[in-house]
Amino acid sequence: MSNSGYLLIADISGYTNFVKLHNLRQKNVLGKIIADNFEFHAEAIVSDLLEAVIEVIEPTLKLNKLEGDAAFFYIESNDNKNQANDIISIMDKACESFNEKASSLVFVRACGCEPCLESKNLRLKIVAHKGNFAIKKIRNFEELAGEDVIFTHRMLKNGIESNEYWLVTDSFYKDLNPSNKAKFTSNTQVLENFGKVKLNYLQLSSPEPQNSKVESRLRIVNWLAQAAYFSKAKFSKKSLRK
Q1: I want to staple 5 with a disulfide (CB 3.0 to 4.6 A). Which of 72, 76, 79, 95 is the partner?
Q2: Average pLDDT of the chain to the nearest whole number
Q3: In angstroms, rounded to a whole number, what is the distance separating the alpha carbons of residues 6 and 90?
């Protein structure tokens, strides 16, 4: 059975590809330990940021699944004529929540490892589409299927040279009020398997995360804070595996 509704992906990007981690793993036992530690730090930071985004979006849209550094949401269309505008409001709040969480994590830079130092470059991008999809239930899981689901994911593989923006399709855009429509500019992208597609684009530009309280503290205080933060994250990860 096909359902009509809204599809949304919130994606965190900004880390350079971890070629160095692969190279470290090829060297020796110490290199592998360092690489594993770097990777764990990156995962912990991204997970915290993604959780902050999910907490804001999930009451309005349903979380379907996590996809690496991204979260895929959906909601079926209803009688609410402002449904698309409500989603835009949630997208705005998600960006605010992301930036607030990023500011609260400034202390991790005291660690000094590459992922912690580069965490200041992490940004949130959101793509949204209105289309059709099938919901397949397998045990306790729901899997969304259909061309529009594939299309929504393809929207992330675009030629936009930015890590922070909103990109919505015409079908989504048409449901917006004039005020929200005015936020976007027309943007044509070539998407794999879909060719040239007219989309609607909003460039965002958040400043580098700052936290005056954290930045005014002694470095040793922030170093201890990051050590405690990652120790707690590692303990939580081990608990989940049991």
Answers
A1: 76
A2: 90
A3: 13
pTM of the model: 0.91
Tokens representing 169? 């399709």
CATH code at 2-241 = 3.30.70.1230
Domain boundaries, the chain: 2-241
**34, pLDDT greater than 80:** no
pLDDT digits (tens, 9 = 90+) for 75-91: 999 999 999 999 999 99
What SS3 string covers the chain? CEEEEEEEEEEEECCCCCHHHHHHHHHCHHHHHHHHHHHHHHHHHHHHHHHHHHHHHCCCCEEEEEECCEEEEEEECCCCCCHHHHHHHHHHHHHHHHHHHHHHCHHHHHHCCHHHHHHHHCEEEEEEEEEEEEEEEECCEEEEECHHHHHHHHCCCCCCCCCCEEEEEHHHHCCCCHHHHCCCEEEEEEECCCEEEEEEEEECCCCCCCCHHHHCCCHHHHHHHHHHHHHHHHHHHHHHHC
**pLDDT tens column, 90-129:** 999 999 999 999 999 999 999 998 889 889 999 999 999 9
Kindly provide the b/e burial profile for residues 134-171, where b requires at least 16 CB atoms within 10 angstroms of the residue's own CB: ebeeeeeeeebebebbebbbbbbebebeebbbbbbbee
